[in-house]
C-alpha cells in the first residue's frame, strides 16, 4: 500500500490517513524499561551525554564523569544506563548527578576466545552499551565510557554526525568506542543486535562489533574522525611522549584505558596522594596528574553524595583509613629494621631499549614519566 504513493512525505501521508489507520510506533526494548524519574534541571535539550555502569565500581566512575561534565557547564542532558546489580545507594547518587538513570539488562558476548586474546574477560558485558541506541527520545547523543574524565566543555561534539569517534591508539584504523557520537534509532539498534548474532565481535567486546558495523569509518569521511584530544589515553602518552608534551595541554577528555581503573587505587586525603593497587599484576600506566585529578573530583563532589545515600550503612569509600595508617606505623616500629638493600644493578642503554621494544617498560622506575620528560627537556634545551 505504502509503495503506491512514494511522492508523499511522512507528514503529508499522515494527514491523509484516519487516526485508526496510522502505523503504530513500536519501541524495541531489550532491557528493563524502568527508568528513575529525572531531577529537574535548568537545561533543556533533546541531546544527551550517555554512559554505562554495570556494577558499583563503574558507577563510581560514571559519577565522576557526570560531575566533570556538570563542572564544565554542559548544556546537554546526562543519561546513565545501569545494570540491575548496581546497588540502590549508587543509583540514588547517580540520580543526583544525571537527568535520567535507566536500568537495562546486561548483555554478554560470551566470546571467551577473543576476550582471552586481550586478557580482558570483563569486556564481554560491554555489549550492554548497544542499549544506548534505544534512547530515541533524544535526537543525538555522545556516549562516554565510565572510565573517562572531562577536562573542559565538549558540547561541540554534538556538531558531529554518527558515527564520529577518535582512533584507537592500539590500531588507528579502528576507532576507540570509549567516546563516540551517535543518533538513537530503534532500526539501528535492531540491525546491531542482528549483526552481533550473525558475526559476533572480533575482539569479544562492543568495540569489535561497532568497528565492523560502521566499517567505513577509517576511509569514508574524515569529519567523523574526532581529534585525539577527545579521547586521550595514558597508553598513548607513554608510547609517544613527545607528542603528549607538544599537544597534551589541549586535551579535553582523558580515558583511563586498561584493566586497572582510578577507583582500583586508594586515596590518602591527609597527604593528597594516590596509593597504588598492589594486588594488580599490571604496571601503573595511568598518568599521575590525571589520576590525582580524578580522585580530587571524587573526594570533593561525589563522596559526600555517596555518604548521604548510604547513611549509616558502611561502604568502601576508597580512602586510606587513619586507623590503617596508625596500624601500619605500629607494625613498622615493631619489626626489626632490615639491612640496607643492595644498590640497584645499572641497566645499559641497549638493554633498556630492548626491554622497551619488548613491552617490558619500567613505569615506576627508569622509564617513569618524570624521567622520560627530564630526558626530553635535556634534548630540547
From TrEMBL:
Its main location: cytoplasm. Its cofactor is Mn(2+). InterPro entries: Glyco_trans_8, GNT1/Glycosyltrans_8, Nucleotide-diphossugar_trans. SUPFAM superfamilies: Nucleotide-diphospho-sugar transferases. GO terms for biological process: glycogen biosynthetic process. It comes from the Eukaryota. It catalyses: [1,4-alpha-D-glucosyl](n)-L-tyrosyl-[glycogenin] + UDP-alpha-D-glucose = [1,4-alpha-D-glucosyl](n+1)-L-tyrosyl-[glycogenin] + UDP + H(+); L-tyrosyl-[glycogenin] + UDP-alpha-D-glucose = alpha-D-glucosyl-L-tyrosyl-[glycogenin] + UDP + H(+). The keyword Ribonucleoprotein does not apply. Pathway: Glycan biosynthesis; glycogen biosynthesis. GO terms for cellular component: cytoplasm. Its EC number is 2.4.1.186. GO terms for molecular function: glycogenin glucosyltransferase activity; metal ion binding. Keywords: Cytoplasm, Glycogen biosynthesis, Glycoprotein, Manganese, Metal-binding, Transferase. Residues 326-362 are annotated as: Disordered. It holds the Pfam family Glyco_transf_8. It is an enzyme of class 2 (transferase). It is found in: Cytoplasm. PANTHER family: GLYCOGENIN SUBFAMILY MEMBER (PTHR11183). Glycogenin participates in the glycogen biosynthetic process along with glycogen synthase and glycogen branching enzyme. It catalyzes the formation of a short alpha (1,4)-glucosyl chain covalently attached via a glucose 1-O-tyrosyl linkage to internal tyrosine residues and these chains act as primers for the elongation reaction catalyzed by glycogen synthase. Self-glucosylating initiator of glycogen synthesis. It catalyzes the formation of a short alpha (1,4)-glucosyl chain covalently attached via a glucose 1-O-tyrosyl linkage to internal tyrosine residues and these chains act as primers for the elongation reaction catalyzed by glycogen synthase. Belongs to the glycosyltransferase 8 family. Glycogenin subfamily. This is glycogenin glucosyltransferase.
